[in-house]
Amino acid sequence: MAKKFKGKLFVFSAPSGSGKTTIVRHLLKQEKLDLAFSISATSREARGTEKNGEDYYFISTKEFKQHIKEDAFLEWEEVYRDNFYGTLKTEVERIWAQEKHVIFDIDVAGGLRIKKKFPEETLSVFVKPPSVDELKIRLKKRKTESEDKINMRIAKASVELATAPQFDKIIKNYELDVALKEAEELVSDFLGK
What we know:
Layout: E1 9-13, H1 20-28, E2 35-37, E3 40-42, E4 56-58, H2 61-69, E5 73-80, E6 83-88, H3 89-97, E7 101-105, H4 108-117, E8 122-128, H5 132-142, H6 147-161, E9 169-172, H7 176-191
Parallel strand pairs: 1-7, 1-8, 2-7, 3-4, 8-9
Antiparallel strand pairs: 3-6, 5-6
Helix pairs in contact: 5-6
């Protein structure tokens, strides 16, 4: 019987606006790395051009809580009241079935939980922004959220920045080109390529 493929897990975490999504998208385009994106489930509404099954699995709060009861998540968190995010176990299985490695664009708490569950297979990377002020500028430029939401994210960012030392590696995203190259090297090295 053929041995079941068990790939690596790459966790990219950071406060909102740090550039982790841009870095993850870049890495997914590098075919030699054999990466596939882990789509998170969320109970929040889709924003802008987000698509179900592509950006997130958009499910109701009731469904999300049912999945929690069924132990269907690898990790999950109630980020804000009745606003849940999580990684379904079936998502990692789906990607490993394609014989690819899993890449996560995930919040700090979720990223650390995955690292704890799969310590040997996981490379956890924290993407550090130049400053909290720069984060605020980036979030405002997105024009996707209210001032209150932005302020909530900034308050959360200060707490998240304190967790950076718990990650395997820290990428300082001060200059995007440098950060992209560094991310590629980290993933490639961890895969032994």
